[in-house]
Specification:
heterodimer; A: alpha/beta; Glutaconate Coenzyme A-transferase; ten-stranded mixed sheet; 8 helices; 14 strands; globular; B: alpha/beta; 2 domains; nine-stranded mixed sheet; three-stranded antiparallel sheet; 11 helices
């Protein structure tokens, strides 16, 4: 039994995807923790941008919402919502976008809108928020999600935001400025797009198996020739998360 | 000229049945007291527009004020589902019109600037644009290629909460400035609520901070703590506990109606509401000071 929880595993592996100097469009929850972890380890110059219009936030506490006042106090800049989407995201000033959503398909397209028919929804989800534009215009997009068939269906009920559409060539033909969905971190491992833009299993976390990943994916999951095993969370990464970033375990509690 | 009147009076004068209402504020400065006053006055058939409907519209929908919602993210921020709006939509009892954040805010920008539409780069996602015919695609006349456009959003009434304003409605906001300026300029009528009403000389001491000029404002209302359970930067904190608690309350029809009875219908105004919250809550939402360095505009 591993001595870390699955949210901790997701957060630590997401933090490792971030590079020093990245300008990251951050969501609340695990992406926020991942950015703060990266800033305290290998990426001290990472710049956090929030869709509420905050640039260079240095939150002193864990924000529950994306518009928490702790994001503002001590930030580099605050701007309107129009400005954050136009000057920052559309203009191409965002390196990384973290996506959320209920479903993701094999080409990294995401549904955050509805389960069932749009006009007569079985389950009405919150909707796009900023994700339609983030998916299109951020240089690199990442998604953190538990690995399950429900999350990885063969077909989406609704395409809220674009991954590689029907394949890499189709996205390239649209001339979208962003690079699309470049990694999906799950509690079993990591999926990354192949030459065709299809998400394939490129890494397993320690103890996870290809069979588990296949069982929990709604499409015929391909496995990369160069399948890696991720480095287990280090004591230092876990210490920063548990002691400094989420001492009450609001986001990081969960089954090991 | 003073436009200062009570919030009760402002809502009575400016909000009419069937209006398109935009209660502004992205997480910050959400004018809950105005929402509650609209509920108390039993306004009906409203179209409620906000990027994030938040608890304020969940409560107004629960109270039967709304015919339709226009939104771009329908969740309880940081908590999960916005249960009442969601349930009404799933049951087919509430009309809705939906955008991405950028589409929603571009509609306001067009409304605020007097343009016939606002252009955006394509996102290629496609499905949302198919469901909403307000999204149109036009040719870029200069470079070829497609541009996505949305029409102006022009609320009948915008309600904007601010830290401070003078009696004429010249209003200053700091912290997250979301879409307050855009909503105010886009609207036909503006109701301003303020934590403080200050002398014009205070406003003039820092003109760069004025987002809304008084001449577009119809009514100015002194409403301290107007935003609770949302917050006012530098005045009081967001009541995250209540946002979590609403998730429980709103999951039960009877609990929701009891909440409205106790905290909206059973209350005269925001002062009474704030007193009823009690000293423990006041203490929990109290914040320490962190003033900015002053700037020097110079004498000319």
């Amino acid at each position: 039994m591993a001595d870390y929880t699955s949210p901790e595993l997701l957060t630590i592996n997401a933090a490792r995807l971030l590079r020093d100097g990245d300008r990251v469009f951050v969501g609340v929850g695990l992406p926020n923790l991942a950015c703060n972890l990266a800033r305290r380890t290998h990426a001290p110059n990472l710049l956090m941008i929030y869709e509420a219009g905050v640039i260079g936030a240095q939150p002193a506490r864990l924000p529950l919402s994306i518009g928490d006042p702790t994001l503002v106090s001590g930030a580099l800049a605050v701007c309107s919502m129009y400005d954050i989407f136009a000057f920052y995201l559309q203009r191409g000033n965002v390196d990384v976008g973290f996506m959320g959503g209920a479903q993701i398909d094999r080409f990294g397209n995401i549904n955050a809108t509805v389960i069932g028919d749009y006009d007569h929804p079985k389950v009405r989800l919150p909707g796009s928020g900023g994700s339609m534009e983030i998916a299109a215009w951020a240089n690199r997009c990442y998604l953190l999600t538990p690995h399950s068939r429900r999350r990885f269906p063969e077909k989406l009920d609704f395409r809220t935001s674009a991954g590689f559409l029907g394949g890499r060539a189709e996205r390239e033909a649209t001339n979208l400025r962003g690079g699309g969905m470049l990694a999906v971190v799950t509690d079993l491992g990591m999926l990354e797009p192949d030459d065709n833009g299809e998400l394939v299993l490129t890494a397993l976390h320690p103890g996870a198996t290809v069979e588990q990943a296949r069982e929990n994916t709604g499409w015929q999951l391909k496995v990369a020739d160069s399948l890696r095993t991720t480095q287990p969370p280090s004591a230092e990464e876990l210490r920063i998360l548990r002691e400094d970033l989420d001492p009450q375990g609001i986001y990081l509690k969960g089954s090991a | 000229m003073s436009k200062v009147i009570s919030l009760e009076e402002a809502v009575r004068q400016q909000v009419r049945d069937g209006d398109l209402v935009y209660a502004a504020g992205f997480t910050h400065l959400i004018p809950f007291a105005a929402g509650h006053e609209i509920i108390r006055q039993k306004k009906r058939y409203l179209t409620l527009a906000r990027a994030t409907p938040d608890l304020i519209y969940d409560q107004m929908v629960a109270a039967g004020c709304a015919r339709k919602v226009i939104f771009s993210y329908m969740g309880n921020p940081g908590v999960g589902s916005l249960r009442i709006v969601r349930a009404e939509i799933e049951a087919g009892r509430l009309e809705w019109e939906e955008y991405s954040h950028f589409g929603m805010i571009s509609r306001l920008q067009a409304g605020a600037t007097g343009l016939p539409f606002m252009p955006m780069n394509p996102t290629a996602a496609g499905d949302l644009e198919k469901t909403n015919s307000n999204y149109q695609v036009v040719k870029d006349p200069y470079h070829g290629g497609d541009v996505v456009v949305v029409p102006p959003l022009k609320p009948d009434v915008a309600i904007v909460h601010v830290q401070r304003a003078d009696a004429d409605g010249n209003a200053q906001i700091w912290g997250i400035i979301g879409e307050q300026k855009e909503a105010a300029f886009a609207a036909d009528r503006v109701i301003l609520t303020a934590e403080e009403i200050v002398d014009e000389s205070i406003i003039r001491s820092d003109p760069n901070r004025t987002l809304i000029p008084g001449f577009i404002v119809k009514a100015v209302c002194l409403v301290p703590h107007c935003a609770h359970p949302s917050y006012t930067q530098g005045y009081y904190d967001r009541d995250n506990d209540f946002y979590l608690k609403w998730d429980e309350i709103s999951s039960d029809r009877q609990a929701t109606l009891s909440y409205l009875d106790e905290w909206v219908y059973g209350i005269k105004d925001r002062d009474e509401y704030w007193q009823k919250l009690g000293s423990e809550t006041h203490k929990r939402l109290k914040i320490d000071s962190r003033p900015s360095d002053t700037v020097d505009y110079g004498k000319y």
